[in-house]
Amino acid sequence: MKIGILGGGQLGRMLIQEALKYDDEFYTLDPASDAPCRNISHFTQGSFNDYETVLAFGKDKDVVTIEIEHVNADALAELESQGIKVVPTSNIIKTIQQKILQKQFYQAHGIPSPEFEVMDGSSDEIRMPLPFVQKMNTGGYDGKGVQVIRTAEDLKNLWLEDSVIEKLVDIDKELSLIVARNENG
Distance between terminal CA atoms of the chain? Predict the structure, then answer.
């Protein structure tokens, strides 16, 4: 199979290294000329945010996947409509890309998560008691687009952008969890 990966970073490299035992070809698309996947895949330097670049990259692949969520999901939807398998689907990627949709998904499916409210970006009227965490709806990662508002004085730093306002919870330990399932569930 020809497997395309949007993003050629460390996660893509780990994916490819684990999958090298299979008889598949790996292709990566990344804006960095020195991306970690450059020497272990068929590498294309380009933007995984650009619609046309993603379409051109994915059109001849059997499967297209991601190693970073900040990709052009509309281009992936178009690839799906052309019969290219996209894993996870473009709809899932669109949910992952928006903190508001993530939180609403958790709520709708009974997945435990801190209390939250949605800030529409046009108002600084917040009902959540201090302290709380503000998470920008899109574009945040690795701590970017996230801030803790602890005091009334901190409210002056509030971003007036679409955001999730989340109750601050005490964290003893942070864990990453990867869950996978096959096509049969």
Answer: 22
Q: How distant, in Å, are the alpha carbons of 69, 137, 149, 184 from that of 99?
A: 12, 5, 18, 28
Q: What is the pLDDT of residues 133-162, one digit of tens each?
A: 999 999 877 678 999 999 999 999 999 999
State the Cα–Cα distance between residues 36 and 92, nearest whole angstrom: 26
Which H helix or E strand runs over 97? helix 90-97
For the entire predicted model, the pTM comes to 0.84
Is the distance from CB of 67 to CB of 35 less than 8 angstroms? no
* Residue 125 φ then ψ, to 5°: -80, 105
The four Cα atoms 98, 104, 109, 110 give a dihedral, to 10 degrees, of: 120
* Token reading at 140: 């945040």
CA 69 to each of CA 7, 116, 160: distance values in angstroms, whole numbers, following the listed order: 9, 22, 24
DSSP state of 167: E
Here the tokens at position 141 are 């990662």
